[in-house]
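Researcher: Structure for this, please.
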Amino acid sequence: MPIWIILVIVPMLFGFYAQMKIRSAYQKNSQVGSRSRITGREAAEAVIRSAGINDVKIIEVPGELTDHYNPMTKELALSEHNYHGHSLAALGVAAHEAGHAIQHKVGYSMMTVRQTLVPATQIAASVSNFVMIAGIFLLSTAIGGKLLVVGAIALAVICLFQLVTLPVEFDASRRAKEQLVGLGILDRDEMSGVNETLNAAALTYVAAFVAALGSLLHILLMLSGRRDD
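Model: Predicted structure, C-alpha cell format:
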C-alpha cells in the first residue's frame, strides 16, 4: 500500500468518520430532554458560578456546534439550540464550555500552552497549504525543497497545537461530567447521553491530530526521498 494512503487518505477518512459520529451523537441526544428542564445557558451559568467565576459572559451565537469559550474576551458562546435547549446534548456541550472557563480561572497549564500557540498556529495554517502544494509541484527544484521545509515547519506547529488541544478538551469534558452530576443538573442515569456526545466530540480532536501528524510525516518522507536522490 502506498505510504501516502496510510499517512494522508486514512487520516482523512478517519476525520470524516469522526465528523459523522459527532453529528449523529449530537442529533440523537438533542432529542432527549433532561428531567430538570434546565437550559444550556442555565447549566453553564450554574457550573461557572459554582467555581466562583463572575466575570464570564454567556452569549448566544448562530450555527450548530459553534459553541466555544474565548479566554481573551471571557465569553462563553453557545449555539442557539444549546443556549435555549434542555436536551442532554445541550447540557453536555454547555457544561463542557464552562469547563474551559474553569480551566482559565485555575490556570490549567495545558490551556495556557495552547493559548500561547494560537498566534503561531494561525500563521502556520494560513501558509501551510500553499507552500506544500507549491513545494510538491516544484519538488525537483531547489525552491521546491525550501518550500517543503517551510511547509513541514508549519505542519509541525499545527501538529503540536492539535496535540496540546487533546488534554485541554478531555479535561474540560471531565470537569463538565463531574459538575452536571455534582450540582444535581442531571441524574447519573442521564449521563450516558452526555458521555456519548462529549466522547464523540473528543474523537474529532483526535482525528485532527492524526491528520496533522500524517501530513507532517508525509512531507518529511518526501524531503528525505529528495535528499536521497
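Researcher: Any notable elements?
Model: The two ends are 22 Å apart (CA to CA). The first strand starts at residue 57 and ends at 61.
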